[in-house]
Design goal:
Blueprint: E1 35-41, H1 60-68, E2 70-72, E3 75-76, H2 82-91, H3 95-98, H4 115-121, E4 125-130, E5 143-146, E6 157-160, E7 165-167, H5 172-187, E8 194-199, H6 236-240, H7 245-248, H8 267-275, H9 279-299, H10 303-338, E9 345-351, H11 370-373, E10 377-380, E11 389-391, E12 395-396, H12 400-407, H13 422-425, E13 437-441, E14 453-457, E15 461-466, E16 472-477, H14 495-512
Parallel strand pairs: 1-8, 1-9, 2-11, 3-12, 4-5, 4-8
Antiparallel strand pairs: 2-10, 5-6, 6-7, 9-10, 13-14, 14-15, 15-16
Bound molecules: 2-deoxy-6-O-sulfo-2-(sulfoamino)-alpha-D-glucopyranose and calcium ion.
């Protein structure tokens, strides 16, 4: 089994897979109805969590979840984009069934079955605070308070349950956490178990840190990833994207090099964002970025030097934004501990997808390639769940809904596509576990110009079909080529594995009811 785990510290986690597998011992009793605190961030990739990867930054509070609980080393999404990922998670179904295909044209049908509704019906108190991004208003929650669309980092607006919009003073990651803790502490019905979704805006583009973290990491420099200057040979869809750090990252909007006499495509959007700041926030922002801007325009780097400069600034801004997340996750853990609730609560930390930190020269996500199909998934388990350490099975974000339901003692509906992870969390080694994952990305033509594609990933192989205005297959041997640089499709010697993967891909499409059948002639079946 190949684990999505580029640079892990062997020492950090013990492989505790067998913890629950001591056959002669009685299984510890799992609690009947644990609380569920489901923390999800936006675009937080495993490269930027020290429990997965030690090259870049320290995330001590997230590491605490992994150290005390479990770390999934083969965790993936079904469609690497915010709205679609959220729809997959909340329904336990692939996009073809929940009908939320992309961020730009879809409105979530809130009358459909979701796990919060099923938990609520079973007597759980349910709440959602933060990013929602499904366009219709939330259903199935006793309490909710959401950011409109992507939300803002500074002094964000929230849409409340009364359907009014309230502007709040402060930094978004702190406010979401304050409100989540306030709900647990003062507003919920303490006689009932609860399920709380804390869904952050951070670390979404354009990576605006809290003023108190602006000065951090300024002494850090990073080597460009080996494939930063990828030539995309044999991969025309990869060549066609618009998510290159060198070419597409905006000097002002993304990298904050604001100067009155410079214009960039996204400058006015950046001005709106910083225009939301109060005088103290703005003064701290300008005090930090002013000298960086001055130095940048004075030195005027070009070519490779400019590429390195952009990559460095991107990494630092991203890390500063993660710092607030890590600290705020620590606050939630401390609160649960202080109230004596940790042992009766499932704490989940994940992201709506992974992200490129310069691999292939990119930022953003969307592709079925590893960095963006993978998503971090760590959990602290309620007492009685025996798993500890790494869980290597192939899991996907459609699995969260059935997992929460099974752990809450609620029957998992047959039409959910996901598998409950509860057996893995009990430390069992199920003889039959899925051996392949299905993926389908639809948002094209659109921002970043990643073409429509679907595919299958097994523990060793990945087969992808890019379609719509292109008809290209890609095949990767992840054991030999984890960076997915060599498209083996059509190469002599791969006939058998290709035929096998195509048959399995088609079987998955049939299983999930996805109408695609290998070819542009089927585009008419697709949404839009
Ligand atoms: C915005 C960003 C994109 C990003 C999408 C989707 N552009 O449109 O870079 O890919 O969100 O992200 S921006 O100019 O508005 O920042 S997602 O995580 O919500 O799916
Ligand atoms: Ca996202």
């Amino acid at each position: 089994m190949i684990e999505w785990n580029y640079h892990k510290t062997g020492a950090l986690l013990t492989t505790g897979l067998l913890a629950g597998a001591t056959a002669c011992h009685e299984q510890p009793k799992t609690p009947d109805r644990p609380n569920i605190v489901y923390i999800m961030t936006d675009d937080h990739t495993a490269q930027m969590m020290s429990c997965y990867d030690t090259r870049y930054m320290e995330t001590p509070h997230l590491d605490r979840i992994a150290r005390d609980g479990v770390r999934f080393t083969n965790s993936f999404v079904a469609n690497s984009l915010s709205g679609p990922s959220r729809a997959c998670m909340i329904t336990g179904k692939h996009s073809c069934a929940n009908r939320f295909f992309d961020n730009t044209t879809c409105v979530f049908d809130g009358s459909q079955q979701t796990f919060p509704k099923l938990l609520q019906r079973a007597g759980y108190q349910t709440a959602l605070v933060g990013k929602w991004h499904l366009e219709s208003l939330p259903t199935g929650f006793d309490f909710w308070e959401i950011l409109p669309g992507q939300g803002d980092y500074y002094n964000p607006d929230f849409v409340t349950q009364r359907n009014d919009t309230v502007r709040r003073e402060g930094y978004v990651t702190n406010i979401i956490t304050d409100d989540a803790i306030r709900w647990m502490d003062q507003e919920r019905d303490p006689s009932k178990p609860f399920c709380l979704l804390i869904h952050h805006k951070a670390i979404h583009r354009n990576w605006m840190a809290d003023t108190c973290n602006l000065a951090l990491y300024e002494d850090r420099t990073f080597a460009l990833p080996e494939n930063f200057f990828d030539d995309y040979e044999g991969r025309p869809a990869a060549a066609a994207q618009e998510m290159s750090i060198v070419r597409d990252m905006d000097m002002i909007y993304d990298l904050k090099m604001l100067r009155p006499d410079r214009e960039t495509r996204l400058k006015s959007l950046y001005e709106q964002f910083i225009g939301r700041m109060n005088p103290e926030q703005r003064a701290a922002w300008d005090a930090f970025y002013g000298p960086v801007i001055e130095e940048f325009y004075r030195k005027n780097p070009q070519g490779r030097e400019l590429a390195e400069w952009k990559f460095t600034r991107y990494m630092r801004d991203y890390m500063k934004t993660v710092k607030s997340l890590d600290d705020n996750v620590g606050r939630v853990l401390d609160y649960l501990e202080e109230k004596g609730m940790l042992d009766n609560t499932l704490v989940v930390y994940t992201s709506d997808q992974g992200f490129y930190m310069g691999e292939h020269g990119w930022f953003d996500k969307r592709f079925m390639y590893e960095e963006s199909m993978h998503t971090p998934l760590i959990m602290r388990l309620p007492k009685g769940y025996a798993a500890h350490g790494d869980i290597p099975q192939l899991v996907q974000n459609i699995d969260y809904a059935p997992t929460f339901l099974e752990m809450a003692g609620v029957e998992v509906p047959d039409d959910m596509h996901g598998e409950s992870l509860a057996p893995l969390l009990r430390g069992e080694q199920p003889a039959e576990w899925r051996d392949a994952l299905y993926y389908h990305f639809y948002e094209y033509p659109a921002e970043h110009m990643v073409k429509r594609h679907y595919g299958i990933r097994t523990d060793r192989w990945k087969l992808i079909h890019f379609y719509n205005d292109i008809d290209v297959w890609e095949l990767y041997d992840l054991a030999a080529d984890p960076a997915e640089m060599h498209n083996l499709y059509g190469k002599p010697g791969t006939e058998e594995v290709t035929a096998d993967l195509k048959a399995r891909l088609q079987a998955l499409q049939e299983q999930y009811g996805d109408p695609v059948r290998f070819g542009p002639e089927h585009d008419k079946d697709m949404p839009r």
